[in-house]
Design goal:
Helices cover 67% and strands 0% of the residues. The protein has 276 residues and is mainly alpha-helical. α2 runs antiparallel to α4, α2 packs antiparallel against α12 and α5 runs antiparallel to α7. It is a multi-pass membrane protein.
């Protein structure tokens, strides 16, 4: 944002180029990190973790190399300002860290606690919960996520272990956030346009509007799923798309980064959909 503000003072075209170029540069670095370090780091990682939790081992998805690629790629992606979340990558990274820590117990494999194969799945599930706790600083919600989303059968005796792990991770995240980030930039995002909403949670006359919003949200959600399905089939079947992009993930990533940069340009349509 600072680079864009300085460039905009010189010329609007230079500011536009700085905005799009900055976003594209860091997104490209993230794509290259996944391509050359570990392709298993592509995507959120949650579907793959669910597959592993159900007993199907996927090669190299829970390795240290994949963890490095995930950290580097996510850092560059978030640093670019691309509107993506970190929940999925954090779940994947938590699962990797849990797996790597469980491998450190090999000297004690003769112990009854570590020799049980179900312990590995429990540690993996706790790792997923830790990823959620680091994202939202919500230990209880993270444990519930680990129960409902990653494991078909969850041992009751594993509740307190997952909760202990998520609590430690949430506290450490809060501590690091308070110590590392300077106070003058530690706040949340700022809106472009200030508002003056009343202190009341809602007014009675607003209830019909809430109902309408719920109906429209359901319709738009269904349309989103339909459009996403059409786009997915288009990418698989269209010959022109295959000729231009094919399996060239980096090229497609650069194209999408430029497109997102154009849409989110602050002096254009972006001022209506983003903060600073």
């Amino acid at each position: 944002m600072m680079l864009y503000e300085l460039s905009k003072e010189y010329d609007l075209i230079v500011g536009f180029a700085a905005w799009v170029g900055y976003l594209t540069f860091f997104v490209t670095l993230a794509a290259l990190a996944c391509k050359y370090i570990a392709v298993q780091a592509i995507g959120s990682g949650i579907p793959e973790v669910k597959v592993i939790m159900n007993g199907f081992m996927l090669q190299n998805y829970l390795t240290f190399r994949t963890l490095i690629a995930k950290v580097v790629g996510l850092t560059f992606t978030l640093g670019s300002g691309l509107p993506v979340g970190k929940e999925g990558p954090f779940v994947h990274m938590g699962a990797i860290v849990g797996t790597l820590l469980s491998k450190m117990t090999k000297p004690w494999q003769n112990n009854a606690f570590f020799s049980n194969e179900s312990r590995e799945l429990q540690i993996l599930s706790s790792g997923c919960a830790v990823g959620i706790a680091c994202t939202f600083s919500a230990p209880a919600g993270a444990v519930l996520y680990g129960i409902e989303s990653t494991h078909k059968y969850f041992a009751v005796k594993n509740y307190w272990r997952s909760f202990f792990a998520t609590t430690c991770s949430a506290l450490l995240f809060r501590f690091a956030n308070a110590v590392i980030i300077p106070p003058h930039i530690a706040g949340t995002i700022m809106a472009y346009f200030q508002t003056s909403f009343p202190n009341e949670v809602f007014l009675i006359e607003e209830i019909p509007v809430f109902i309408l919003i719920g109906i429209l949200s359901g319709i738009f959600g269904a349309l989103f799923v339909l459009i996403h399905r059409r786009i997915t089939f288009f990418r698989k079947r269209n010959r022109t798309y295959k000729a231009i992009f094919g399996n060239k993930n980096v090229v497609f990533t650069i194209f999408m980064a430029i497109l997102v940069g154009v849409i989110t340009y602050p002096d254009g349509f972006g001022k209506y959909i983003a903060g600073k």
